[in-house]
Known about the structure:
Elements: E1 6-10, E2 18-22, H1 68-85, H2 89-104, H3 107-110, H4 114-130, H5 134-154, H6 157-161, H7 169-190, H8 198-208, E3 220-225, H9 235-250, E4 253-257, H10 283-294, E5 299-303, E6 307-309, H11 316-328, H12 338-350, H13 357-371, H14 397-401, E7 407-411, E8 416-424, H15 427-438, H16 452-461, H17 463-474, E9 495-499, H18 500-503, H19 508-514, E10 526-528, H20 532-535, H21 538-552, H22 555-565, H23 575-579
Parallel strand pairs: 3-4, 3-5, 7-9
Antiparallel strand pairs: 1-2, 5-8, 6-10, 7-8
Amino acid sequence: IRGPSTVRNIRGGCAGDLAHVPVALPSALVAILAVSLRTSTGQGVPLPESQVPPGLRRWIGRDNCGEPRWVAFHNGLAEVVGRFNRFEFGPALGGLVALLVPVVQDPHVAFDCATAVSSAFGLAAQCAEQLQLPVLSARLRQLVAIFGSFDYQMKGEEYIDQSPWPVRWMDSMDGILRSMTMLKRHEVQVEPSRGFPVRQALAQSSSASGGSGSGGGKRVAIVSVCDYDAGATPLARLSQINKQAYAQKHGYDVFVYETSPYFEDPLAKLFVEPPSYRPAAWSKVDAILLALAEGKHDWVMWMDCDSFFMDPDVRLEDVAAAAEAEQCGAFNAAEKDDVTELQGLVKRWMDGPAGDLGWFEDLLDAQLERDGGSDGCGGPQELFGEPPRNRTLGLGDWLFRQRRPHVIASEDGLMLNTGIVLVRASAWSWRFFQQVRWMTFGRSPVTQHPWWEQTAMVYLLQLPFTLAHASGVAASVAPQDIGPTALHKGYASACFMFSQKHLNGYPPIVSSALKTHTTFETGDFIVSFSGCKVYSSQEVCNQLFLGYFFQVHDMRDFELTLLCHCGCDDPALPALVRSERAAAGCHRLPPIGKTAACE
């Protein structure tokens, strides 16, 4: 998608002749450039195989775009280009959906030629823009990034730019940043509370609902993995102290793993690669499943280790209640015993046959039938088009029918941010995170995607809903754009999105460099440091960690918590503190993670 005034049409065959066709185009229309299929090379000098992480070796440089499936896809895309250039944007969008749905139903297929899929989503975004649907366009551009980033990592920018597909890497990135900047401004305009600190936004939500949104009395667990070198950074210790202090204030439980956890169930046999091949980020899914399997909490919060609570007076129950009140409205009064239902499902799950995926698919479908589709939130959402379906992948009615929020997160300036996620302890959430996990069974491209579990979650929560709405637009049955005040927001109704300011702002040194992340301000709920070391040094990041930590903790709390949660001879404890441990009153604080308090 290049150039202001000339369209290069693809003509018949996989490597058809190029025809330069001068076209007088309005400034709003971006011309389409498509070139003949050819072999492209990646950029730069390849790394020696010994330096490539073992899990990535299978995927680096792998190119299946010359297979018959993609030759046919290329020919279909040529037809869509023709419709676009005739200003037939609705039919062009419909043609793109028809091309994409059979491909994305299986991520193994879709990532075989991810640049092709990325280019088709990019053209769909252009169609949506021409149809005056800017929010749908932004959602489609997010999917451009999901697929384009895979080939960017595995083959390089030069491969994408020189490929036969109408896409350039930097153009696609500029497009998504531009679209998402517009979307975030629009959200704040129509919902000003998105720009408030979360405590103020929650108070406003409670007032609007007549005070009925209180979530008091809920059992909550906070889960994190803090696997950092204590000799290089104090982050892990500071994070544990911060999370424990916040949890103690509200009566929550905390599970902080010092190494990546591994969820062992009858399906674990389907992981065919060594655990070392699986990027550590996937341990987030294991940690959440372990907490859900306990069946002792109403909500489970995943929180990245490099994030601190900065407003300890905000309660997670109130965050969940506000999401439910906004999503369900008058139907919010309906209560379900989610935990008991979850406990029963987990019991049957853990007794299931090892490695028999079909048996577990039947179990999940039986659970859905038992539930009857009733979620106490006004019934299933309406989809104006048919979404892609794949039973094993999880693209089915359980995902499309649910309206009550089960996953609460935020969206940064690029897409879903999974650094902070609040999860309802329910059968729906169990199925969701199992389906996310299933995407890594066997030798899966999703496992090695540069955005890891975030890609799998977007694949379920956003991709089918965005395509369904695009299908409805093409068929002239979707009445309006998606967006914050529309019937559809472009992702599953079971996922509620707070603004990034509400859940995870970033220090200026990170937000100014990323350009996609909201800057943390005094009074905000949580600060996240992800990306700090990329844009500065470890020493600068350590100073940031300490600076933000001591905004909410004093030195004595720091020493006392270290004393109670470190081993008696832990070198992290100052010698004077260790010598005074008997008189410090350690019994006041419970142990954290696997470490025991000094007796």
